[in-house]
Amino acid sequence: MDLYRKRVETVASTINDRIGGASPETALILGSGLGELAREVQDPISISYGELPGFPSSTAPGHSGTLHIGRLGSQTVLVFEGRFHIYEGYDPLDIAMPTRVAARLGVQNFLVTNAAGGINLDLQLGDLLILEDHINLMGANPLTGANIDDWGPRFPDMSSPYCPVQRRRLLEIAQEEQIGARSGVYAAVAGPNLETPAEYRMLRTLGADVVGMSTVPEAIVAAHEGLKMTGISVVTDLCDPENLQPVSVEEILKVAGTAEPKLTKMVVRLLEE
C-alpha cells in the first residue's frame, strides 16, 4: 500500500505543478461516449494520462485518456475524459486512482457519468438516471487491503453514497429543461460481456434500474475520502429480458452521443450555481 500511496501522491504532485497551484473544487469522470462535456471546459490545461507517471492507461472504447483542468460553470474542475474498468484487467486500486488523486488536490465534489443498460421498463433510450444508490456485483472492492488511515476510515459508512442535495437539484434542472430524467439504482457488474436474459431478471428482482461496468468503485472511494458524490447514467440500451435485442458497443456509443447535449446542459447548469 505504501507503493500505491506514493503513486497517487506523485500523480497529484505532477498535476499540481502543471496547474500552478490552482484549487479545483469538483472532479468529473466521463463515461463511454460521453467525452464532449470536456469540450465545455474553458481555458483548459490538457494532460494525456501517459504524461502522468504511474497513472493507468485508458483502453476502453469511447475513453480518450486525457485530463482537463479549467473552468466549467462557476467552478475550477478536473475532468477525467476516460476511466478504468475491471474488464480491462485493472486492479480496483487503479480504477480508484482518479478519485484518490482528485482528493489529494483538494476536490470536495465528485461527479461521474456512465453509459448503462436500462432494466426499469419505464426508461427510454437516451433517458438520464440520477443515482440514489447502487448494488456492487463486481466481486471486487477498491478498499480491499491495508487501510490508509489519513485517507479515510477502515469501515466507511455507505448509508447515503450519492449526494441527495445534488440529486434533487439535477432532477429540478431536468424538469426545467424538459429532459427525461429520474432517480434510481445502478447495478455494477464486471463485464465485459453484456448480460443474459436471466441475469436481467435477477437484476430487476434485486431492485436495479440500470446496469453498467463502472462508477461503483469511484463511489466507494469517494465515501472513504468524505467527498460528495453524484452519478448520472445515460440509458444506452434497453434490457427487457422478454424482448431482448442484440446490441453492439457501436450502437451504445451512438446513443450516448445523441444524449450527450442533454447531459452537458444539466451538468453545466449544476456547476454554475
Structural account:
This protein has a single domain, classed as 3-Layer(aba) Sandwich (Rossmann fold), CATH 3.40.50. Helices cover 32% and strands 25% of the residues. The chain has helices at 2-19, 92-95, 97-104, 164-177, 197-206, 216-225, 249-271, and strands at residues 26-30, 42-48, 66-72, 75-81, 109-118, 128-136, 181-188, 210-212, 228-238. It is α/β, with parallel strands linked by helices and 273 residues long. The longest helix is centred in the last third of the chain and has 23 residues, at 249-271. The chain starts with a helix and ends with a helix. Strands 5-8-7-6-9 form a five-stranded mixed barrel. The protein contains seven helices and nine strands.
What structural class do the secondary elements suggest?
alpha/beta
The CATH class label is Alpha Beta
- Rg (C-alpha, Å): 17 Å
The total of helices stands at 7
- CATH topology group: Rossmann fold
Fourth-tier CATH superfamily name: Nucleoside phosphorylase domain
Q: What series of H and E elements makes up the topology? A: HEEEEHHEEHEHEHEH
| Oligomerization category of the chains in this entry | single chain
What's the average pLDDT?
Answer: 94
Low-pLDDT residue intervals, each spanning 5 or more residues: none
The largest β sheet comes out as:
5 strands, mixed, barrel
End-to-end CA span: 38 Å
User: How much helicity do the residues have?
Assistant: 25-40%
Strand order of the largest sheet: 5-8-7-6-9
Q: Please, how many domains?
A: 1
Please state the second-level CATH architecture. 3-Layer(aba) Sandwich
| Morphology call | globular
